[in-house]
Specification:
Elements (H helix, E strand, L loop, with lengths): L18 H10 L12 H14 L3 H16 L6
Length: about 80
């Protein structure tokens, strides 16, 4: 680019994250409580593998599953 021409994109702000990533980050910043449970060893192994494949934390997969279940069978319990 020559010195006399100005970039038409020069004044635009630069985004480092997508809106979806911003929304996920806001959800991730919510307060969480620890709890303990048990499951079959093959489920635990599969959950860890799915977590690694998706580059997400195990708790994120569990939260998604719990949210889907509650929306489907107990929508009145969700805020």
């Amino acid at each position: 680019m020559s010195a006399s021409k100005k970039s038409r994109f020069g004044d635009l702000p630069v985004r480092t994250t997508s809106p979806k990533q911003d929304a996920l980050k806001a959800v991730d910043e919510q307060v969480r409580e620890s709890f303990s449970s048990q499951c079959r060893p093959d489920f635990k192994h599969a959950l860890k593998q799915a977590s690694a494949r998706e580059n997400r934390k195990v708790y994120q997969l569990l939260e998604d599953s719990l949210e889907d279940y509650l929306k489907r069978y107990h929508p009145d319990l969700l805020k």
